[in-house]
TrEMBL record, chain A:
Keywords from the UniProt entry: Glycolysis, Lyase
Sequence ranges of Low complexity compositional bias: 10-37
UniProt protein name: fructose-bisphosphate aldolase
SUPFAM superfamilies xrefs: Aldolase
Residue ranges of the region described as Disordered: 1-37
Gene3D superfamilies: Aldolase class I
Species of origin: Tetradesmus obliquus
InterPro entries: Aldolase_TIM, FBA_I
TrEMBL record, chain B:
Lyase in keyword set: yes
TM spans (from-to): none
Record protein name field: fructose-bisphosphate aldolase
InterPro entries the record matches: Aldolase_TIM (IPR013785), FBA_I (IPR000741)
Alphabetically ordered keywords of this record: Glycolysis, Lyase
Pfam family, one: Glycolytic
EC number per UniProt: 4.1.2.13
Reactions this protein catalyses: beta-D-fructose 1,6-bisphosphate = D-glyceraldehyde 3-phosphate + dihydroxyacetone phosphate
Family: Belongs to the class I fructose-bisphosphate aldolase family.
Known pathway: Carbohydrate degradation; glycolysis; D-glyceraldehyde 3-phosphate and glycerone phosphate from D-glucose: step 4/4
Length: 410, 384
């Protein structure tokens, strides 16, 4: 049965390639008008929940700001355990102070706001300050960077499945959102993970329904409390020789379910952001070129993501820093008139070399900040379709990370 | 512009139907529906009258005026102009693709009646064979209409109606694509009622959202289909008179952006309940606003029936020797709406329409079956 699905994908739906449509079938007057457009999109509230939500206008403005062309998100919301592993990998002792200092290094990089419009934080650091006592949220806001908060408490395995996971964190979420908002957060993020076990073995219906439900419930609660929800349904890069077209198929299936539920739960799409995976073949399959990644990823987005969503912020997953930039550039070349911003929400792809450069040593502080800024700048150019290289961190293999369950938010 | 070659992909055909500045003539009224209109205009409802009426459109130069496709009723697909040229040839020779209505009308759910209740649509059982035949006969695209009703006091549209109609639309679309026809997917949310534009928008989001989800579920290639929704307008019986075109535009674009994937090349609005002039003004306002704001990756076009026909019928039914004038009216109406697709219709100028008859109160709209009276036909249909 699974095989039939994979076969069906190539015969009945593989053909259409909409990427060229944006230039060939749109009239030139439309493109010209879009290039010089000044009129803000006017949104009409269609539900009384939307009409009576006092945060709605602010959330739409926040989402639009984060999706500003030429900018993207710095994902720095790793749990303490994950952060610890990374610090230790470059010889830095893992404690509360080193974790705080590492964040301070990134958040105080001068001029970061030129390239970064939003920063996802781990809860501890929403409430932290620089060594000089300036709250991180103030440091970021001064640079025009919107503080955001990781809202989920991690994953647990789903019983009755082959190691698939569900994401936890709905209990008390409304109360937590209110507190985070008070502290200065204006957006949140919830990561759901789906996996392809092998060729023809995509995520089970159980896993898709459970994770789509979690995302929709979280998004609804976040919007009720003034936080723009980043919806992250990650079809994760994993072992296996499945091809890129199969990733695209399962990604379509997952996003279709997610958006169906967002619709049913009255989540206002004009005030969310999406954080999906790019379409990549399995780790044991031949790697795809940036052009291939762009072809399948843009096709998947065009098929499943409504234009109302202001920004699609791709995760970097296991991609190397250079691969993350090259692929983002290819996406924007393939889809120059996309209705949403095709941009980034990168963690590892902005941090790996930055961390290595710092290695916990004060004398490396500025150099490490420069690396972060150059990585952010490269991805900013890629968002605009203007990245030319050379990359600040060329080469570099995949930066893989095992899925972690049972963390309970720590 | 020549129509796509026979072996063109569905995506190419759909893109051609939704090309910039182009739209569709919906001339697929069933025998019963067109019959009521002919009779209301003082004409006899017989095959020759129906043929002569359709000939006005298909032999007028509507292709040059901006029509990319004409939806036909199955009887019409077999008919010809007075000089013997088949209607299919009349159309294809002027660059207009023939399309075909493939549903067999609405049927009310048990306990519901057609005028006030909820319905589903007939025709799936025989669709595969019929579709193959229509493709052979020259049709390049198809259309299937579902109708949903907004009435908050009764909880309409109900989940049952939304889900069943969405599934049927998706099944129809999959069967048509397999037969080489581009499916026009029409989940019409009826304009009848006292609802606000916001409530209509909410219902449209539910209905279109469910439809799109089912399209994916059933393996329909979105690049090779078109959507035919209603614009987001307050109910026909709502207080406050007609909405301004800019209000219709803002509400419609809000909803379309939320539920229609960019992969669908064209949104071809229906004109049900609007007068000819309203349909043009609203479509123009939608396109002007879309050009100003962006974030509108599909064509925003028309698949108009009454809005392209009412004045034509008025002229011709008054005096059949005014056929040439009637044909000029067909061209003028088409051209006005093609201009509206480009956001270039002169809203301050004079619309060619000579009637304000919105035919909103057509109780027989969507009727199933031939000229039998309403209750008898419904009883007969349910009894089958």
């Amino acid at each position: 049965m699974q095989h039939t699905m994979a076969m069906r994908l190539s015969s009945s739906r593989g053909a259409g390639m909409p990427a060229a449509r944006s230039s060939s079938s749109r009239s030139s007057s439309r493109s010209a008008a879009r290039a010089g457009r000044t009129t803000a999109v006017k949104v009409v509230a269609t539900s009384r929940f939307e009409a009576s939500n006092p945060f709605m206008e602010e959330m739409r403005a926040t989402a639009a700001h984060i999706a500003t062309r030429g900018k993207g998100i710095l994902a720095s919301d790793e749990s303490n355990a994950t952060t610890g592993k990374r610090l230790e990998s470059v010889g830095v002792e893992n404690n509360a102070e080193t974790r705080r200092a590492w964040r301070e290094l990134m958040y105080t990089a001068p001029g970061l706001g030129q390239y970064i419009s939003g920063c996802i934080m781990f809860e501890d650091f929403l409430y932290s300050s620089t060594a000089a006592g300036v709250p991180f949220v103030d440091v970021l806001r001064k640079e025009g960077i919107v503080p955001g908060i990781k809202a989920d408490t991690g994953m647990q395995t789903l019983p009755g499945t082959d190691g698939e996971t569900a994401t936890q964190g709905l209990d008390n979420l409304g109360t937590k959102c209110k507190e985070w908002y008070k502290q200065g957060a204006r957006f949140a993020k919830w990561r759901a993970v789906l996996r392809i076990a092998g060729p023809g073995q995509g995520p089970s219906t159980t896993a898709i329904m459970e994770n789509a439900h979690g995302l929709a419930r979280y998004a609804q609660i976040a919007q009720e409390n003034g936080l723009v929800p980043i919806v992250e349904p990650e079809v994760t890069l994993g072992p296996g020789s499945y091809g890129i077209e199969e990733t695209a198929y399962w990604s379509e299936r997952v996003y279709s379910h997610v958006f169906r539920l967002l619709n049913e739960y009255n989540v206002v799409l004009d005030a969310i952001l999406l954080k999906p995976n790019m379409c990549l073949p399995g780790l044991d399959a031949p790697p795809a070129t940036p052009a291939e990644v762009a072809k399948y990823t843009t096709r998947t987005m065009l098929r499943t993501i409504p234009a109302a969503v202001p920004g699609i912020h791709f995760l970097s997953g296991g991609m190397s820093e250079e691969e993350s930039t090259l692929n983002l550039q290819a996406l924007n070349e393939a889809c120059p008139n996309a209705p949403w911003s095709l941009t980034f929400s990168y963690g590892r792809a902005l941090q790996a070399t930055t961390l290595k450069t710092w290695a916990g040593k004060q004398e490396n502080w500025e150099a490490a900040q420069k690396v972060l800024l150059s990585l952010a700048a490269a991805n900013s150019q890629a968002q605009l379709g203007q990245y030319k290289g050379p990359h600040p961190s060329p080469g570099g293999g995949r930066i893989l990370q095992a899925l972690r369950t049972g963390g309970a938010g720590k | 512009m020549p129509i796509p070659a026979d072996d063109a992909s569905l995506a190419e055909v759909a893109a051609a139907l939704a090309a910039p500045g182009k739209g569709l003539l919906a001339s697929d009224e069933s025998v019963g529906t067109i019959g009521k209109r002919l009779e209301k205009a003082g004409l006899v409802n017989d095959e020759e009258t129906r043929r002569a009426y359709r000939e006005l459109f298909y032999t007028a130069p509507i292709g040059k005026a901006g029509i990319s496709g004409a939806i036909m009723f199955k009887e019409t697909l077999q008919q010809a102009a007075a000089d013997g040229t088949s209607f299919v040839d009349c159309l294809t020779r002027q660059g207009v693709m023939p399309g075909i209505k493939v549903d067999e009308g609405l049927l009310p759910f048990e306990g519901h009646d057609l005028a006030t209740g909820e319905t589903f649509t007939r025709g799936l059982d025989t669709l595969a064979a019929a579709a193959a035949g229509y493709r052979q006969g020259g049709a390049r695209f198809a259309k299937w209409r579902a109708a949903l009703r907004v009435d908050a006091s009764r909880g309409l549209p109900s989940e049952r109606a939304v889900e069943l109609n969405a599934q049927q639309l998706a099944q129809y679309a999959a069967v048509c694509q397999a037969a080489g026809l581009v499916p026009i997917v029409e989940p019409e949310v009826l304009i009848d009622g006292t609802h606000s534009a916001a409530d209509f928008g909410a219902a449209s989001e539910r209905v279109i959202g469910a439809t799109v989800a089912q399209l994916w579920r059933q393996g329909v290639a979105l690049e090779g289909c078109l959507l035919k929704p209603q614009m987001v307008i307050k109910g026909a019986d709502a207080a406050g008179g007609r909405a301004a075109p800019e209000e219709v535009a803002a509400a419609t674009l809000t909803v379309m952006r939320r539920v229609v994937p960019a992969a669908i090349p064209g949104i071809m609005f229906l004109s049900g309940g609007q007068s000819e002039e309203e349909a043009t003004l609203n479509l123009n306002a939608i396109n002007v606003m879309a050009q100003q704001q962006g974030k509108a990756p599909w064509s925003l076009s028309f698949s108009y029936g009454r809005a392209l026909q009412a004045s034509v019928l008025k002229i011709w039914s008054a005096d059949s020797s005014r056929a040439a004038e009637a044909k000029q009216m067909a061209v003028a109406l088409a051209a006005a709406n093609a201009a509206a697709v480009r956001g270039a219709y002169d809203a301050a100028g004079k619309h060619p329409s000579v009637t304000s008859d919105s035919s909103l109160r057509e109780a027989f709209r969507g009727w199933h079956g031939p000229t039998a009276s309403a209750p008898a036909a419904a009883a007969a249909a349910v009894a089958q």
